[in-house]
Design a protein that fits this description.
The strands form two sheets. The chain has an eight-stranded parallel barrel with strand order 1-2-3-4-7-8-9-11, surrounded by eight helices. Strands 5-6 form a two-stranded antiparallel sheet. Helices cover about 45% and strands about 15% of the residues. The relative contact order is 0.15. By secondary structure, it is α/β, with parallel strands linked by helices.
Length: about 350
């Protein structure tokens, strides 16, 4: 890749903007510290390449994923980048107190003004046992009050704060501190009509989690756009979608690098134990049973797994088909055994080749 492409400030005008969702994958033989370091390096590279935003997911008790605390990763990434927006994809609100979420993101906005996104999800991001543990050992919110808590976070982050009515009838002013000059942008995340309807009702941007489930995407996006109620911050609907992506110079490499993550997802969906992500060599050496192999094949059909030119064409076609001007890729490229343990060359390569191909 030449230096001009590496320092591109963004895709050509007719191409969709690119963003990144990072689950902070952990592979065989890798410590969490090494996985976190590789993700922060990837955020720096995305910043250099002109990507729009870089979000961190929230998952718990998964050996293959180190993304459990988005605010910590956002702070670290913000300190190591210059212009890219950084945020959560997302904070799983039932696991947290709304006031704590508001204060964390007010602090992040104060640290990186104008660069913070607060993506909020309704799912727990874990299994039922860990979900129970989270709710039994710390401040959490009632999932049935999700709309109310989203509204409360929005009010708490406003510079004017929120006004509570006390039991004795008195009023009490509350605002997230430290107070930032402006509020982070709030996005609702989802893969069904629930969050789409709520985002439309509240006049908030919405992200469809296509990387997790692409079912019903057209109906969900239509519900959001058709039902949108303009707000002061967002007079028009704003949406994009996510997409698992692996891009490499050759078809053989791209298919090999896609295998570890696809096999991990197949294990998850069939209720099998999940360890750290395999290397490419480990994935090639141990075929799954017929059901697992079918799941892997089905997933790879839905993902963006291609050489650069084909990947750019497919991504652009996807964006046009669903009427979005931004796509958030989840770089899921696996790693070969001989590659550095504290780096993720396949994920870096995916971002670089995709940005270069779209800039042409």
């Amino acid at each position: 890749m030449n230096d001009d492409a590496a320092q591109a400030t963004g895709p050509a005008p007719h191409q969709p903007r690119l963003s990144v969702l990072d689950l902070v994958p952990v592979r065989t033989g890798q410590t969490s510290a090494q996985a976190l370091a590789s993700s922060l390096s990837l955020a720096e590279r995305a910043d250099d390449l002109g990507f729009e935003r870089y979000w961190f997911a929230e998952h718990h008790n998964m050996a293959a994923v180190a993304a459990s605390t988005p605010p910590v990763m956002i702070a670290a990434a913000a300190s190591r980048t210059r212009r890219i927006r950084v945020g959560s994809g997302g904070v799983m609100l039932p696991n947290h107190s709304p006031l704590v979420v508001a204060e964390q993101f007010a602090a992040l906005e104060a640290l990186a003004p104008g660069r913070i996104d607060l993506g909020i999800g309704r799912a727990p991001g874990s299994d039922p046992v860990v979900t129970h543990l989270l709710r039994a050992t710390g401040p959490t919110s009632d999932v049935e009050r999700f709309p109310e808590h989203v509204t409360n976070i929005r009010a708490l982050l406003d510079p004017d704060g929120a006004r509570l009515r006390l039991g004795d009838g008195g009023l009490y002013d509350v605002r997230a501190t430290p107070a930032a000059a402006q509020a982070p942008t709030i996005w609702l995340l989802g893969s069904s009509d629930y969050s789409a309807r709520l985002a439309a009702e509240l006049g908030l941007p919405y992200v469809f989690a296509n990387h997790f489930s692409g079912a019903g995407i057209d109906q969900v996006l239509a519900l959001y756009r058709d039902g949108y109620q303009p707000s002061a911050e967002h007079p028009a609907p704003q949406t994009f979608l996510t997409l698992n992506a692996v891009v490499a110079p050759t078809l053989s490499e791209v298919r090999e690098r896609a295998l570890p993550q696809a096999r991990s997802m197949a294990r998850l969906r069939t209720g099998r134990p999940m360890g750290a992500a395999e290397t490419v060599e480990e994935a090639l050496a141990a075929p799954l049973d017929d059901a697992g192999e079918r799941l892997v094949a089905e997933m790879l059909e839905r993902w963006l797994v291609a050489e650069p030119a084909a990947a750019a064409e497919a991504l652009t076609s996807l964006a046009r088909r669903h009427g979005v001007d931004e796509v958030m890729v989840v770089p899921v490229a696996g790693t070969y055994a001989g590659e550095p343990i504290d780096e993720t060359p396949g994920r870096v390569q995916t971002l670089e080749l995709l940005a270069q191909a779209l800039a042409r």
